[in-house]
Specification:
By secondary structure, the protein is of the alpha+beta class. The chain is 39% helix and 26% strand. It has a 6-stranded antiparallel β-sheet with strand order 2-1-6-5-4-3. A 5-stranded mixed β-sheet has the order 10-12-13-15-14. The protein is elongated.
């Protein structure tokens, strides 16, 4: 029995390679995993003949491990078998340098995460279904609320206008004015309108929209409907010029409102609660920052906050769907989302969107 044949006793797939990725040995688990026949193994000259490592530079990883004599662990890697191209697998690969008979080799140890990934995809599919169901329910609720509120609201405004004309004068009665009634009616109408707009996204509504205008509306709407925000200081930093991105403006507003909701929850118990919302324009990209000085995200939870059904909130105070849906929505708009957070200091979520490129029509030459 050779030194490498001892690897056949291991339960994990292991492939022995040289620094140039040429293969030396496949243990039984690796042969079974990749469904490799003895005939096929005789013709394998490189690990790249076995599979495509679609989102990872395995050669660079092996070279670094070989040159620096260090153990390196990859992130999750999607692997497609060359013999069975329709079969996709997911692994975390560990590169371990060893010396055998005064010669250096690299052991590639494969930890299979395929089943876990399939379960995650299944959960993501469930989230999509839940999201669709919730938006349909919210749309039906919004239509009902709008009908039930707008009709009596119109009557209130009509009789207030009649009373103002009949009574005349400054209309000030114990600190109450007709103007305050009209303002209250308008505030209620705006709340209902905002709810209806958010609940009825249209697939045909993709167009160029002004991020500055939509963000201002989102912040104003959120502050209006959240009484708890009266004790929270808002600070905004918006440019004066228009910044256009392509997508669904209502989807963008839902993203912002979800991030503001997270900021609100994180600020509970803060001494001087502050939410800062800013827009930056850099390198043909538009950046939106939503920052709070709340409780922050625990370090051991930061790798999981975008996972479906993960939440740091207490039982009954969160489904764990919010940030997962936010990330998916941002990606639907061709954007990216990232964050920085420190416990007891605060959190900043940053959304990055490519700036819309407006194609100008050529001028028609004068006759």
């Amino acid at each position: 029995m050779t030194s490498f044949e001892l690897l056949d006793e291991m339960h994990e797939p292991v492939i022995v390679v040289k620094g140039d990725l040429s293969t030396v040995h496949f243990n039984f688990q690796a042969q079974s995993l990749f469904q490799l026949s003895n005939r096929f193994l005789k013709n394998v000259k490189s690990i790249n003949d076995v599979a495509d490592f679609d989102n990872h530079d395995l050669g660079e990883m092996v070279k670094e491990s070989f040159d620096h004599n260090s153990v390196i662990r990859s992130p999750e890697v999607r692997v497609t078998s060359r013999r069975h191209p329709k079969r996709m697998m997911y692994f975390v690969i560990k590169s371990v340098p060893v010396i055998v008979d005064d010669q250096k080799f690299i052991l590639l140890c494969f930890k299979d995460f395929t089943q876990e990934r399939l379960l995650q995809d299944k959960y993501n599919g469930q989230v999509d279904k839940i999201r669709t169901h919730e938006m349909i329910s919210l749309g039906e609720l919004a239509s009902g609320v709008a009908h039930e509120i707008n009709n009596p609201l119109a009557i209130v405004q009509l009789w207030a206008e009649r009373a103002e004309r009949k009574i005349g004068g400054d209309g000030n009665y114990g600190g109450l004015t007709f103007e305050s009634v009209f303002e209250a009616v308008e505030r209620i109408r705006n709340i209902v309108l905002g709810l209806r707009r958010l609940a009825h996204p249209s697939k045909d509504s993709w167009s160029h929209f002004n991020v500055v205008e939509e963000l201002q509306e989102s912040v104003s709407y959120f502050a209006l409907v959240n009484k708890t925000m009266e004790t929270v200081k808002f600070k905004t930093d918006f440019p004066k010029e228009e910044l256009l991105v392509t997508g669904d403006a209502m989807l963008f507003q839902r993203i912002v409102l979800n991030l503001l909701s997270n900021a609100r929850d994180a600020l509970k118990g803060s001494k001087d609660p502050l939410v800062k919302v800013a827009i930056r324009h850099e390198d043909s990209n538009v950046y939106v920052d939503v920052k709070d000085n709340g409780c922050g995200i625990p370090e051991n939870a930061q790798d999981s906050i975008f996972d479906s059904f993960f939440t740091t909130k207490k039982v009954g105070f969160g489904t764990g769907m919010g940030l997962g849906l936010v990330k998916k929505s941002v990606e639907e708009l061709s954007g990216e989302i990232s964050f920085t957070s420190q416990e007891n200091v605060g959190t900043c979520f940053t959304i990055k969107f490519p700036e819309a490129v407006l194609t100008k029509k050529p001028k028609t030459p004068a006759a």
